[in-house]
Amino acid sequence: MRAPMRIVVAMSGGVDSSVVAGLLHEAGHEVIGVTLQLYDHGVATGRKGSCCAGQDIHDARRVADRLGIAHYVIDAEDRFARAVIADFADSYAAGETPIPCVRCNQTVKFTDLTALARGLDAERLATGHYVRRVDGPGGAELHRAADPARDQSWFLFATTQAQLDFCLFPLGGMPDKRVVRDVADRLGLAVADKPDSQDICFVPSGTYMDVVGKLRPDALEVGEIVNSDGDVLGRHDGIARYTVGQGKRLGQAAMVGGERQIVIATEPGRRRIVVGPRGSGTRTVRLREVNWLVEPPADGLRCTVKLRARDSQHPALVRVSGGSAPGSAEVLLDEPALPAPGQACVFYDGDRVLGGGFIRSSEVG
Amino acid sequence: MHYLDANASEPLRPEARSALLQALDATGNPSSVHRSGRTARRWLEDARESLAGRFGGRPGDLIFTSGGTEADALALHALGAGRRLIVSAVEHDAIRSVVGTGRDVEVLRVDETGVADLDQLETLLRDGPPALVCLMLANNETGTIQPIADAAALCRHRGALLHVDAVQAAGRMNVDIAALGAHALALSSHKLGGPTGAGALLLAADAPQIAALIVGGGQERGRRGGTPPVGVIAGFAAAACAAQECTGLAALRDAAEHAAVACGAIVCGAGAERLPNTTSLALPGVRADAQVMALDIAGIAVSAGAACSSGKVAASHVLTAMGLGALAGQAIRVSLPWNATLADIDAFIAAYQRMADRLRSTLVPHAA
Q1: Is B268 a catalytic residue?
Q2: Which chain B positions have a beta carbon within 8 Å of A37's beta carbon?
Q3: Sign of the alpha-carbon torsion through A65, A67, A70, A73
Q4: CB contact under 8 A, B311 and A53
Q5: Which is catalytic among the residues A104, A167, A303, A345?
Q6: Which among A51, A82, A115 is the nearest to B362, CB-wise?
Q7: DSSP assignment, residue A5?
Q8: Which of B292, B364, B368 sits opposite A115 (nearest CB)?
Q9: Does position A363 have pLDDT exceeding 60, yes or no?
Q10: pLDDT tens track for A127-169
């Protein structure tokens, strides 16, 4: 064990980050708990007159009280509204399928909280994410969690090397969630039995489309469903309701010539959904906003890639593309797959995350 | 810990503590007819006489409440009944919360130092139906003192009532309801070094009769039901007697202010007449909640803006109303308690300088 450090812990009010605070405090560190107020809870749940803070902030404060550590609430509502919620709606309107958790990690959590932690003279920022930070010869490495069922490495691909060097993920080595709950119980934390959070935090009732429709009504305008030749096969009720790979909500376009159809592309400009036979795929995936956690490979990188949160590994060759936008890359899959624009393509070497980027819309054809 | 958050709550004065403990040990309810009841009632009425006299009113016109917020609520309820409300933009939430409730409310604007626009007040009073005007004596965030006597003259000329939230001013400057010309004053025990849990609404001799907000058993001559907390009220009165004008704090406050300004801070409301113990310091580009955190970690207790019950610090409505824009989210309030020392200020200055350097170098302003 190193000498005691001052560590800022991002506390959500859930059991995971509470256990992180508890373990680091128990280990003798000076722990400063910080909870982000991301949106007005009263407004989000539609309960007029209720407090802007949800139960989670209350829970986080009570955990901090129990541990006897400092705790603060940071108002990140404006930043979250712009960087995460507006981006979420814009992404749908652009025919993509966004990952708001990645945007939140990229902005509010790792960029802003590491800056704040440094400003408070803390030596580390710790979170309850299930990933492992492994000290390697070239600095901190990002690895999958020990518990494959909990692994969140795909959601953290955009963490920069500098952020990774500053961060701690004490739960990455936990064998399973039961152990985490047992630690919470041993530390006397009231959140030990609190249910896991589900789904997207700012859409409590699960009605994504209400949020999208409020910010980008154009994403819910009706349009045509076409095949890759442009023949009209049916109508859709809003481009935001479709993700590449989806077979539902296609109506009469669901079956063409006895073959089941799936969405193979979106054309936001013309508000069209393009379908093709199930089994359609591509071998080339173009990425933007690529984050490298190794030196960008000059001659391409053989690795496996993961294209969705719950997805198997695809063997591939990743090449840095010199193109116009910095941070571009091209992925050549050994076998065709159907990546959804807006989702992440994350590069792995075994358990280690080497980098990743957001999947760009591909041209149809 | 160097406590520089007196406007949130003053440290308990020894005189208040002593009176509180003494009265707490006396068993009895002031409404009871037996000897114990009479003893309790004597504590209560001694406190009432002492407090009324301290603030220029008559004992029969002082109604004990649970605190400043309830005193304000009682004024809004009783004096505001059937009247249009005119409230300044920098009022405490105890008053400001009526905006948007469906009542007829006009908001009175303030200038860049936080002083209410009396020309606008005159226009509003001339044109509208009978009003209750709510204007605080000293602001909780900036310490800005309002021209109450002038406002009172306008109100009386136009048949309006004037309620003055004197919660921050009482005990820190001379407060006399007759001299101010107000119809009612809200007071709070813990803001002048008494215990929490008591406040009062003091009515002027010519104020209208008022109806209770809490009816209950008809205590306080039918104007506020519920058994009064005799011990707390005894502490309140003792604190009010002990509290002198805090002009002695001005030199310490000014030293803190000068040091902060040398670090790049802006003093909000600097041009106005202010309470001697209060300063609002905006540090351009550095969010207020981070400043409060850094200072707290360094052992200095200050506050920022309006802390929600969640603990979230939102941009200050007071500073926003003063036209400070983004600075409204970048200001901390330093408010010296009655027992502040030079050591407190030296510690504040050292911590502030370090905080300003550190946060300015690490916090990156967000792109739009």
Answers
A1: no
A2: 310, 312
A3: negative
A4: yes
A5: A104
A6: A115
A7: -
A8: B364
A9: no
A10: 999 999 999 998 999 999 999 999 999 999 999 999 999 999 9
The per-residue b/e assignment along A147-161, b for 16 or more CB within 10 angstroms, e otherwise, is: beebbbbbbbbbbeb
Q: In this complex, do A52 and B308 lie within 8 Å of one another by their Cβ atoms?
A: yes
Average of pLDDT values for B2-14? 97
pLDDT bracket for residue A323 (50, 70, 90): low
Please name the fold of domain B14-242: Aspartate Aminotransferase; domain 2 (3.40.640)
Domain A6-193 is found in CATH 3.40.50.620: yes
Cα A28 off chain centre by: 31
Active site includes A303? no
User: CB–CB of A37 and B309 under 8 A?
Assistant: no
Domain B2-9+246-362 -> CATH class: alpha beta
Q: What is the pLDDT of residues A2-58, one digit of tens each?
A: 689 999 999 999 999 999 999 999 999 999 999 999 987 766 555 555 555 678 999
Active-site residue among A167, A201, A303, A345? A201
Nearest CB neighbour to B294, from listed A37, A58, A120: A120
Nearest chain A Cα to B295, which residue? A120
For domain A282-359, the CATH class is mainly beta
B85, B98 Cβ separation under 8 angstroms: yes
**Ranges of each domain in chain A:** 6-193, 221-277, 282-359
Mean pLDDT across the stretch B189-195? 98
Cβ contacts below 8 Å, chain A against chain B, sum to: 68
Q: What residues in B contact A72, CB-CB < 8 Å?
A: 289, 292-293, 296, 311
Q: Which of residues 274-293 of B touch A (CB under 8 A)?
A: 289-290, 292-293
Q: Classify each residue of B330-339 as buried b or exposed e, where b means 16 or more C-beta atoms within 10 Å of its C-beta.
A: bbbbbbbbbe
Q: What confidence score (pLDDT) does residue B26 get? A: 84
User: Architecture of domain A221-277 in CATH?
Assistant: Roll (2.30)
Answer whether A115 sits within 8 Å of B366, measured CB to CB: no
Residue A125, classed as helix, strand or coil, is strand
Distance from CA of A86 to the nearest CA of B (A): 12
Give which of B101, B286, B296, B310 to mutate to test A binding, by max A Cβ within 10 Å. Answer: B310
Q: Any idea which residue has 């002492």 for tokens?
A: B50
Domain map (residue ranges) of chain B:
2-9+246-362, 14-242
Which chain A residues touch B314 with a CB distance below 8 Å? 75
Shortest Cα–Cα distance, A14 to chain B (Å): 16
**pLDDT over 70 for what percent of chain B?**
96
Please, which residues bridge with residue B87 across strands? B107, B134
- CB B368 to CB A32 under 8 A? no
